Amino acid sequence: MDSMSPIERSLGQALRLAHAADGPPSLAAAMRYAVFPGGARIRPRLCLAVARACADDRPGLSAAMAVAIELMHCASLVHDDLPCFDDAPTRRGRASVHKAFGEPIAVLAGDALIVLAFQFLADAGRGAPARLPAMIGIVARAAGAPHGITAGQAWESEKDIALAAYQRAKTGALFAAATAGGACAAGHAERSWHPLGERIGEAYQIADDIRDVVSNERDLGKPVGRDASLGRPNAVASFGLRGAVARLEDLVASAIAAIPPCPGALELRAHITAEASRLLPRELARPAA
Amino acid sequence: MDSMSPIERSLGQALRLAHAADGPPSLAAAMRYAVFPGGARIRPRLCLAVARACADDRPGLSAAMAVAIELMHCASLVHDDLPCFDDAPTRRGRASVHKAFGEPIAVLAGDALIVLAFQFLADAGRGAPARLPAMIGIVARAAGAPHGITAGQAWESEKDIALAAYQRAKTGALFAAATAGGACAAGHAERSWHPLGERIGEAYQIADDIRDVVSNERDLGKPVGRDASLGRPNAVASFGLRGAVARLEDLVASAIAAIPPCPGALELRAHITAEASRLLPRELARPAA
Question: Residue B204 maps to which CATH number?
Answer without folding.
Answer: 1.10.600.10
